[in-house]
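Notes continue from the previous slide.

Worked example: a multi-chain complex. Inputs as given:
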Amino acid sequence: MGEQMRLVVTGVSGRMGRMLVETIAGSDRAVLTGALERSGHDWIGRDLGAAMGGADSGVIVSDDLAVFADADAVIDFTAPAATLRFARAAAKARVAHVIGTTGMTAEEIAQLDSPARQTVIVRAGNMSLGVNLLVQLTKRVAAALDADYDIEIIEAHHNQKVDAPSGTALMLGEAAAEGRGVTLAEMSDRARDGITGAREPGRIGFTAIRGGDIVGEHDVMFAAAGERIILRHVASDRSVFARGALKAALWTRGKAPGAYDMLDVLGLSEQ
Ligand SMILES: NC(=O)C1=CN([C@@H]2O[C@H](COP(=O)(O)OP(=O)(O)OC[C@H]3O[C@@H](n4cnc5c(N)ncnc54)[C@H](OP(=O)(O)O)[C@@H]3O)[C@@H](O)[C@H]2O)C=CC1
Ligand SMILES: O=C(O)C1=N[C@H](C(=O)O)C[C@H](O)C1
């Protein structure tokens, strides 16, 4: 076994933050060396293990990005503004940055170009193996079918999710658009209300359901006269995202600076 990868987790008290801490604790290939939370959070200054309701872990929760200096990679599932700040700091410290945060605008994503020239950035709206396979399947099916097949993407998430459509739905929409040889920005249909008129041919529609504790469900529907094809992914446990993020962090070792995604990590880019 090689040297353990030294990892920092941001937003450590969040749903994904906690899941990442547990996933890293279960790995013999990585060790948690830093845990970040927002300034003023009541976990700051406390031992992470105790704050999570267990035994002391030796890692103190901090709001100081100086912890990056002692790490190999940062795993970040927080919010767009925070992620941009972490990206600048990770680039300065030359540590890899694994980004799961969704809801970033095109302008915010473009702000990652400069940090990606200095360090490795892996960003994906969904880190699970299943969804990344679904992305490739969606591209293939969209390429095989003509525009008589209306493409609709339906996603469902828990009632605390703040962004819509989900990052995954947008990944699937991009894949469908690519397969069909169009651009999502021109063809997406994201809001229907009132007298909308008949569906415009060629559009890629999005529907977002929010309720209860749904972890994450995505359907890509290809609907034509007389038949429908539905590709579906259901995440029933957040550990699938955390395992993917850890895989991505381990993968960054020795890679040249640049912007990568989970298809690169999983070796699915050329399929
Ligand atoms: N790519 C993927 O595979 C997945 C992506 N996600 C995405 O990850 C993100 C987080 O999801 P989830 O864990 O459910 O959300 P939570 O709200 O549970 O957690 C977010 C964490 O980030 C912290 N945070 C927010 N803003 C800042 C800031 N400015 N500085 C420091 N910390 C900050 C929050 O702190 P506070 O509570 O104080 O605001 C909180 O601890 C979302 O964008 C979600 O869509 C989620 C699952 C999978
Ligand atoms: O916020 C979530 O929970 C999730 N967010 C990601 C997204 O926006 O697609 C991934 C997953 O579906 C869970």
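Summary box: Residues 129-235 form a domain with the Dihydrodipicolinate Reductase; domain 2 fold (CATH 3.30.360.10). The CA atoms of residues 102 and 156 lie 15 Å apart.
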